[in-house]
Amino acid sequence: MNRFFKEINEVCEIEKELTFHIARHTYATTVTLLNRVPFESVSKILGQINWRTTQHYGKVLDYKVSKYMQLLKTKLRILNRMHKSKSS
Fold this sequence. Notes:
By secondary structure, this protein is mainly α. The protein has helices at residues 2-12, 20-32, 39-46, 62-87.
């Protein structure tokens, strides 16, 4: 499988070496966990015995933090508008 990843690297001119481990980690984080698939399910998909083993894939991703901060910002803006309209 790593041979195929090496071929993809060459064809796509990717500088970082792709491996099965990197593909597995990317799948676990970006495809499943960022789409709110529970750790227990991701663990089963990856064939791990204990779902806690999967927790290291769930490190806080910059994308995830940014997404939730944007949601918080929107909610605070709405609350601020509601507060201003009541005090007027």
